[in-house]
Design goal:
This protein has 3 helices and 4 strands; from the N terminus they run ααββαββ. The protein has one domain: 2-Layer Sandwich (Translation Initiation Factor IF3). The chain is 40% helix and 32% strand. It has 118 residues and is an alpha+beta fold. The relative contact order is 0.22. Keywords: Signal.
């Protein structure tokens, strides 16, 4: 019985640790564009794209998800909403960070520009 309790406790600790983890920059850059409806423009593409800035330095704090990918889904939804509100169709991700909230949770903060691209 004690072994079962110990295993459940270890499982719960591992689960909570996975909930508060963040993702690597490569994971974010590979995953976020697949979650948005708006077009993702990389920093290196902006000079060769036919886009006009609508709003610079927009920030969005995503609702906390159960896992880091859920945070990204919530962030993607927020980016799409701002792009739509700005009458655009694209965005540039300027920066992102997971901020500790409480003892075990993290929250995703995104900084981006909205654009209108042809």
């Amino acid at each position: 019985m004690n072994k079962l309790i110990n295993l459940n406790l270890i499982g719960a600790i591992l689960f909570l640790n996975s909930c508060s983890s963040s993702m690597s920059p490569i994971q974010v850059n590979n995953t976020l564009p697949t979650l948005t409806k708006s077009k993702y423009i990389s920093q290196s593409e902006i000079e060769t794209s036919n886009c006009k800035y609508l709003t610079k330095n927009r920030s969005y704090t995503a609702p906390i998800g159960l896992f880091p990918k859920d945070d990204l889904k919530n962030g993607a939804r927020g980016i799409d909403e701002w792009v739509t509100l700005d009458s655009g169709n694209a965005y540039i991700l300027r920066n992102y960070r997971w901020v500790n909230v409480g003892d075990e949770a993290t929250q995703l903060h995104l900084e981006f520009d909205t654009l209108l691209c042809e």
